[in-house]
Design a protein that fits this description.
- The complex is a heterodimer of chains A (324) and B (524).
- Chain A has 8 helices and 21 strands.
- By secondary structure, chain A is an alpha/beta fold.
- In chain A, helix 1 runs parallel beside helix 2 and helix 1 crosses helix 8.
- Chain B folds into 3 domains: 180 residues, 3-Layer(bba) Sandwich (FAD/NAD(P)-binding domain), CATH 3.50.50.60; 164 residues, D-Amino Acid Oxidase, Chain A, domain 2 (2-Layer Sandwich), CATH 3.30.9; 85 residues, Orthogonal Bundle (Arc Repressor Mutant, subunit A).
- Chain B contains 12 helices and 24 strands.
- In chain B, strands 1, 2, 3, 10, 11, 12, 13, 20 and 21 form a 9-stranded mixed beta sheet that branches. In chain B, strands 14, 16, 17, 18 and 19 form a 5-stranded antiparallel beta sheet that branches.
- In chain B, helix 1 packs across helix 8, helix 2 packs across helix 8 and helix 10 crosses helix 12.
- Chain B is globular, with a radius of gyration of 24 Å.
- Classes of the chains: A alpha/beta (324), B alpha/beta (524).
- Strand 12 of chain A pairs antiparallel with strand 24 of chain B, so a sheet runs across the interface.
- The complex binds flavin-adenine dinucleotide (2 copies).
- One flavin-adenine dinucleotide binds next to helix 1, strand 6, strand 9, helix 4 and helix 5 of chain A.
């Protein structure tokens, strides 16, 4: 393995939060910054929402009056900002493990193999993913194909122009669910049925209203403790309180859960089961010099919120560095 | 020169490379097989493996699109010592024998394997009284290295078990292994030794069972001739036996559900934790897996073959399971569950290890009721079946000196021996530095290595079981489509034909409509 290279700040994740933090740090005079990103592009989750004629714009630019854009364009904009700086960006580089006390990390990529880095401060801007059926605790049943997460739908529909289902059933009812229903409709599927174990959808009315342009999904709220997926080879529906709802594909949407594995492996404190990192009022994690920004901090936040959250956390990092 | 067996898939055009498609009986040649093994679970594959060192023409087939995709894929993955097996039975004999064979076998076949030991935990006075009985049974089964522990000793060994522990039994040689790699390794070696393997074919009729040369008919109307038929059909064994009118036996499915916990829960428990077994079941266990997780299970739920409504998992049973397992390890309730699964045992009313040689017809061997210990016993059971074939059916066993019985060093799965830990590997093949499954840290190189492996796995699930990609905490959120893309690119099969488990389980339906790439970037 190569010897350990040192940076003032290392950021894990080049999503909106990581990029926001990097830009702020750079403009504040920090010259040795590295971002480690496992995807092949800068931009995080937005980069998976491709620009499509007839497609759905799901990223709001509140700072510019709240106009909607395609995620791909937002990601490209983030990338362009970074290119103007000399922040070192490592793409297709996965951080494998961290040493919390030593403020070090190890990543791997195809050009350099395994590489060790150390830093004065490290920001975890690793984002979040959707909860699995097991994590939701009330989804069980069969395990056929065509039970997807939203990100898989993005990769099939937007990246590969493939329609996985024509009669979708969506489990979960937050804004990601309504965005997914709109996307599937735009790509050629019929209106989705949306189910969740709450009487009314999680996404507030005004959010749902935006997606009415693309279709009119039907909401089926329920209050049972259990939903069972049906289908031997391919999903055919769900069983809910003795009623079967037909479909030819299921998307398990929303309900984000932080990407906390590095912290858990590296013994940084994490709340279980929420997986939200334990932070103090200065956005520091349980070891000195470690910070977190963006959707990794839990809840649902849009891309731009995360971008500004990254900038905010950068301020705390600056304070920390100047003190030590 | 060793001659490789043929590998064929019952797949239509465009779903897999043409060279792998089974569409004509003539592909099998016109000489009948000496032995046709129906069922490529762990038992069938082990039999093929052990038979493949003899000069015989052998066929191994299964209705699934990978080997080991039946009961053999959903179990607790324990290599039992047999300490609690029913005394003086064939099962006990074979399990005890196999447990001695396993350490060497795992090394030869590159099956990840670990001796972690097991701890039987007594948590009330009734159970404490049972300890002596369990101990005595262990000794009778020839497991002489077991030890009775006081509550203090048990607690010292496993500090996180319940404070209610009153005593325990340590079984030092209980082990864990990779259940998926086992059927695969057996089958890969068989293939190298000339065994033909056909996947995706169900046997739906057996003709001329009394003749010297019998005919197996598949669901697609293919006809396969063979001198000997071995029925190792697991859950399908009863239906299969009815096709040739074997001696009657009755089986039913017995479902076992499991919870899988995240990897950081694993360090809390080092041994397999077992409750005191009751008359009906071994009870709910807490088991460290070779993959680095903890699992809790299984349930034991009987139903009938006709019941088509039974799902894989139910929230109600999983809740009960968690309650049960928490009695051994109370903090389990706080651990995050990443996935749930179930396996289905084939429960035989006439008893486990129901084996009939010349089953109403000369040259037919029926093996049923390999219910709860078949993963462990597979190597010794295979040897037992070979002895039967030789002694009772007169199968001629001439050793083929060119046959191999092991797999090469590079067969260790990537998750077990990380290629990128050795700089050389990434330099030679940069794909070993490109992580595609983030949770299990599996590289593109690992996936491609398996696509090129002897059984040419082509489904998402078969790649999952080999690489562990999609088996981590995000359950494929990040990598499922990426893996499908790698299969599609590497094997030159369109992406929409990539499936989870073969025909009927493709991931996509059609191209998108009203939706195109023409839009312009409006954000500069
Ligand atoms: C499925 C899904 C759909 C969403 N849809 C929308 C939407 O339509 N509109 C919207 O405004 N918001 C959406 N969001 C919210 C979205 O998460 C935020 O908009 C924003 O992308 C969060 O920014 P972030 O920087 O915190 O995280 P992310 O954008 O998730 O970026 C985190 C980055 O860290 C990288 N990373 C993580 N761990 C490692 C590691 N170990 N090594 C290297 N790199 C690592 C990841 O690859 C990723 O690029 C969605 C979220 C999800 C999960
Ligand atoms: C919940 C659970 C926990 C367990 N835990 C353990 C453990 O810890 N240790 C242990 O040693 N054992 C354990 N077992 C038992 C072990 O898994 C089984 O004994 C073993 O897998 C049986 O293997 P098999 O080859 O007989 O059956 P299978 O793996 O089911 O193989 C039979 C194959 O035959 C095929 N087939 C059937 N009919 C036909 C047909 N007509 N045409 C073509 N193909 C056909 C099927 O597709 C299948 O692949 C457990 C089992 C369960 C369910």
């Amino acid at each position: 393995m190569n010897s350990t290279k040192h940076f003032s700040v290392v950021i894990i994740g080049a999503g909106p939060a990581g990029v926001g933090a990097a830009l702020k740090l750079y403009k504040s005079g920090i010259k040795s910054i590295a971002i480690i990103e496992r995807n092949d592009k800068i931009g995080g989750i937005p980069s998976f929402y491709k620009r499509k004629k007839g497609g759905v714009r799901t990223f709001m630019r509140w700072s510019r009056g709240g106009y909607p854009v395609f995620g791909q364009d937002y990601a490209a904009w983030l990338g362009k900002q970074i290119l103007k700086t000399d922040v070192e960006v490592k793409l297709e580089s996965q951080v494998l493990e961290i040493d919390a006390k030593g403020k070090m990390l190890t990543f791997v990529n195809s050009k350099e193999g395994k590489v060790n880095l150390s830093a004065d401060a490290i920001i975890r801007a690793c984002g979040s993913r959707e909860e699995t059926p097991a994590e939701r605790k009330w989804i069980a049943g069969a395990r056929p194909v065509k039970v997807f997460f939203t990100k898989q739908i993005l990769n099939l529909v937007d990246r590969n122009n493939l329609l996985p289902m024509k009669k979708p059933l969506i489990i979960g009812s937050d804004i990601i669910a309504y965005a997914a229903a709109a996307k599937l409709k735009a790509a050629g599927a019929s209106d989705s049925t949306i189910v969740d174990n709450r009487t009314s959808p999680k996404a507030p009315f005004y959010e749902r209203l935006y997606f009415r342009f693309w279709g009119n999904p039907q909401y089926r709220g329920f209050d049972v403790k259990s939903l069972e997926i049906t289908g031997v080879k391919s999903a055919t529906g769900v069983n809910l309180n003795g009623t079967h709802i037909d479909c030819d594909g299921i998307v398990i949407c929303g309900e984000l859960i932080p990407n906390s594995e590095l912290a858990l492996i590296g013994n940084l404190k994490v709340n279980i089961p929420s997986r939200i990192p334990v932070i103090n009022k200065n956005y520091q994690l349980s070891e000195s010099g470690w910070f977190a920004a963006g959707n990794i901090l839990g809840g649902f936040h849009g891309a731009e919120w995360c971008y500004y959250d990254g900038k905010k956390v950068a301020d705390y990092v600056l304070k920390y560095i100047s003190k030590s | 020169m060793r001659k490789y067996g043929k590998l064929l898939y019952n797949w239509s055009d465009g779903n897999i490379e043409e060279s792998l498609i089974f569409n004509d009986d003539a592909q099998l040649g016109d000489i009948p097989y000496d032995v046709a093994i129906v069922g490529a679970g762990v038992v069938g594959s082990a039999l093929a493996y052990k038979l493949s060192k003899y000069k015989l023409k052998i066929l191994l087939l299964d209705k699934n699109y990978d080997v080991g995709e039946g009961t053999s894929k959903g179990n607790s993955a324990i290599i039992h010592t047999g300490f609690d097996a029913p005394v003086d039975t064939l099962e006990s004999e074979l399990v005890t024998k196999a447990s001695m064979e396993w350490p060497e076998l795992a090394k030869k076949l590159k099956i990840p394997f670990e001796v972690c030991g097991a701890l039987v935990v007594a948590i009330d006075e009734e159970q404490e009284k049972q300890l002596e009985k369990v101990y005595a049974k262990g000794l009778k089964n020839g497991v002489t290295d077991i030890k009775i522990l006081s509550s203090e000793e048990a607690k010292k060994l496993e500090p996180n078990i319940t404070d209610d522990v009153l005593g325990g039994i340590l079984i030092p040689r209980e082990s864990i292994a990779d259940p998926f790699a086992t059927s695969i390794a057996f089958s890969e070696v068989s293939l190298s030794n000339g065994v033909d393997i056909i996947l995706g074919v169900e046997i739906t009729a057996v003709e001329n069972p009394d003749e010297k040369t019998k005919t197996l008919v598949t669901d697609c109307g293919n006809r396969i001739t063979t001198k000997i038929i071995v029925n190792v059909g697991g859950l399908g064994s009863e239906k299969l036996a009815k096709l040739y009118n074997g001696e009657q036996f009755d089986t039913n499915p017995r479902r076992g559900q499991f919870l899988i916990f995240d990897k950081f829960s694993r360090p809390a428990i080092n041994h397999i934790l077992l409750p005191i077994p009751t008359v009906t079941t071994k009870g709910v266990l807490v088991v460290p897996t070779i993959f680095g997780n903890l699992i809790a299970g299984p349930t034991a739920e009987d139903y009938s073959h006709d019941n088509k409504l039974v799902a894989d998992t139910t929230t109600e049973q999983l809740q009960l399971l968690l309650e049960g397992a928490s009695k051994l390890y109370p903090k389990l309730k706080e651990q995050p569950v990443i996935s749930i699964f179930s396996g289905v045992r084939s429960n035989c009313s006439q008893g486990s290890y129901w084996i009939r040689c010349n089953d109403n017809h000369p040259g037919i061997l029926t093996v049923a009721g390999i219910r709860s210990t078949g993963f462990t016993s597979s190597p010794s059971l295979a040897q037992h079946l070979i002895d039967e074939l030789h002694d009772k059916i007169g199968l001629n066993l001439e050793v083929n000196h060119e046959a191999i019985d092991s797999r090469s060093e590079d067969k260790w799965p990537g998750w077990w021996k990380r290629r990128y830990d050795d700089e050389k590997f990434v330099k030679e093949n940069p794909e070993y530095g490109k992580v595609v499954c983030y949770c299990e840290q599996i590289t593109r190189g690992d996936v491609i290595q398996h696509l090129d492996s002897p059984l040419k796995p082509r489904t998402l699930d078969s790649i999952k079981r080999r690489t562990r990609a999609q088996m981590g905490r995000c359950q494929g959120f990040d990598c499922m489509v990426n893996i499908a893309e790698i299969i599609s690119d590497h094997c030159e099969v369109p992406l929409d034909k990539i499936s989870k488990r073969g025909p009927g389980s493709e991931i996509a339906q059609s191209l998108t409509s009203n939706y195109s790439d023409e839009a312009k970037n409006e954000l500069n």
